[in-house]
Known about the structure:
alpha/beta, nine-stranded mixed β-sheet, 2 domains, TIM Barrel, globular, single chain, Lyase, Ornithine Decarboxylase, Chain A, domain 1
Amino acid sequence: MKNTYSDLIDQTYYFPQEGFDIKDGYLYFHGVSLQHLIEEYGTPFKLSYLPKIGDQIKKAKNLFKKAMRSNSYKGDYYYCYCTKCCHFQHVISEAIKHDVHLETSSSFDIDLILKLYEQGKINTSTVLVHNGYKTEDYIRKILKVNELGFKNSITILDSMLELKRFEALDVKLKIGIRMATDLQPKSDYYTSRLGIQPKEILDFFKNHIAKSKNLELKMLHFFVDSGIKDNFYYWGEFQKGLKMFVELKKICPELRALNLGGGFPIKNTLGFEYDYKYIVNEIVRNIKETCEEEGIQEPDIFTEFGKYTVGESGAVIFEVLEHKKQSDAEHWYIINNSLMNTIPDAWSILEKFILLPVNKWNKEYQRVNIGGISCDHSDYYNSDELNQQIHLPIHDNNDKEPLYVGFFHTGAYQDAISGYGGIKHCLIPSPKLIVIDRDKTGNFVSQVYREEQQPEDMLRILGY
């Protein structure tokens, strides 16, 4: 009796599941035939499935809307997209179709905002939340958007020294305070370098912000790096942030918004479980009850979802070039690009992604390691999020049909961190990027956003 890869998945997970399906032995991603894309475009390629972005935004908005209604919550909810997660025009344009607001984190981010404004894709009612260290250039551009009439531009103070730079401007600005959070016990340091220590915030407001003639405090921001999770650590930091908001609100009536920072997790294994509905309701319920007990108005709730917005829309597809057996126990599948270049988080912070074969689901499977074609020892991938070994269909080097594999939910951060289109490790090129959407009749439409990087592209940057 054959023990096929399809049998392995059926025995281990509920499958098919949202985003993944099998038809005639081939993998489909969000209903898109990956084999068809391979035959049309070749490999390797990155893909961006735009409709998933809107699905994620609508899901979160509906959850907060329902939770606010069931808890008789009087504040509003604002969904912000963090541009740093993926700056591509097609991604941000898709997000803002669904009435999201935007979070910036650097000077050049404002140039992106100005382009969107020039193109008529956003208007001056869009909320802009400005995070990150405020360089002189960043401040100059924040003033620019205020001059253009962005009445909901909010600059978040990351340190107390930043206040002096804005006080000296003699321009009325809306500001926020970022509260520093304690990190998880296994972190390299105890308190985040970002934000102002909680014990200093109240005096900072009383002695400086409250006396300012041109600055108005509108938002308290706190960020938990590990994201919004149902564990003691997250709820502990959440309660600290909520307590700080209450204390500030009592001495600052114009304070109106609580920005939760951090993001929802995304599916990084076929066994992923997360109760979004429960978490959202707990957030809203806790804020509501605390505000009622303290006799203050419920704040508007802001979230900054980046990875959650775009992560599950992305994938990278490779061809296995060679099955290389290095010992009796070690099988290597060498793919036609570099993992360090295409999914750098897998190398730098040991992030895990969903790895699945595109074809050969009806063949027997074996334990394998995935290796890139760079000469770097670290260019490999060999375990999933559950710290389980990687298994893929058996591939023989003499097989007529190549084995194709995909890493899924790679849509956030990977292009920015790898410097898509720039200089690459071992000068291995950035793959072509394919954008997939649906037309008015619901049919899939795909196009090459950018072809695979060519030698002259890198040589030009290098000065040759």
